[in-house]
Write a structure and sequence with these properties.
Strand content: 25-35%
Radius of gyration: 18 Å
Largest sheet: 6 strands, mixed
Shape: globular
Order of helices and strands: EHHEHEEEEEHEHEEEH
Strand order of the largest sheet: 3-4-2-1-11-10
Length: about 280
């Protein structure tokens, strides 16, 4: 059940955007935990949903959220779709997940989109690369005769593959009047592949000095949110760790005048028991 839609006045609207690689709810605090906690990537973990609850509570205040390294429902996540779980716990009326790697019932590696605005369209974008399977989520939002494209990505580890993927994304970005690209891009702001993307599009230069990885001692800026030049960036910074090896990254961006979206709010937050009962049903 949703309450009546709420909007803004005629002034330029500001959106709050969040990108977060959640590492399937595994909190990593030291390098050795990649080894000692590796079993959590294939088996259920009692703390996983608790970590995601903290993340979902933080996500509530954001309008559009892109998540990476979620699971679509397999053994390790107790067969719970983690994008859906975050949406329910974070009171997001609209959500979408995209499976990139399937390992049977053991793991379903995914990207996800959570939104308080209704997308006019959502597409899966198949990214080029040396190993097939990586995709991006493209959500199109229409308002006042104008369009905003929001793209959620988790790019390859190989520089060669990232260059191909950046080239592909540039064509997608250039096909829309306004665009936001966010996610774990596995490259720094000054990397060759990032500069190639910037040179081919109207995207702002990525903001340097905002480090998100590793979460316990951030020294690499491999997570990014980029916006085209017609969108004004008001604020941009990393948040605290809520259970991952990455920190969440937020951006406040001001839309062009006349472009407004309307947010729906649930009448009542859903408890964990409510969610699990609905899942069983």
């Amino acid at each position: 059940m949703m309450s009546q839609a709420t909007g803004t006045n005629n002034r330029a609207q500001t959106l709050k955007i969040l990108s977060y690689n959640v590492q399937v709810g595994i909190k990593t605090s030291r390098p050795y935990q990649y080894l000692t906690g590796s079993w959590r990537h294939v088996l259920p973990c009692a703390r996983r949903l608790g970590n995601l609850d903290l993340a979902a509570e933080m996500m509530k205040e954001y309008d559009i959220v892109g998540v990476q390294e979620v699971d679509a429902g397999s053994l390790r996540s107790n067969f719970i779709n983690l994008t859906e779980y975050l949406a329910e716990r974070g009171d997001f009326p609209y959500w979408y997940h995209q499976v990139n790697r399937k390992f049977g019932r053991i793991a379903q590696h995914s990207n996800g989109l959570l939104s308080h605005f209704h997308p006019a369209e959502i597409q899966d974008l198949r990214l080029p690369g040396l190993i097939p399977g990586r995709q991006a989520i493209l959500a199109r939002y229409d308002a006042g005769g104008d369009t905003l494209a929001v793209i959620v990505v988790h790019l390859a580890l190989s520089r060669r593959a990232r260059l191909l993927q950046m080239d592909y994304l540039a064509d997608v970005v250039n096909s829309f009047p306004h665009a936001i690209v966010m996610g774990d891009m596995n490259c720094r702001h000054d990397s060759r592949e990032m500069q190639h993307l910037i040179a081919r599009t109207r995207l702002h230069e990525p903001i340097e000095g905002v480090h998100t990885f590793p979460s316990w001692r951030p020294q690499h800026n491999i997570d990014h949110i980029l916006a085209t030049s017609e969108l004004t960036i008001n604020r941009f910074y990393e948040l605290e760790n809520f259970g991952s090896d990455h920190l969440p990254l937020m951006m406040e961006v001001r839309l062009p005048p006349g472009m407004q979206f309307y947010r729906y709010n649930r009448d009542k937050s859903q408890t964990l028991n409510d969610y699990l009962q609905n899942l069983d049903g």
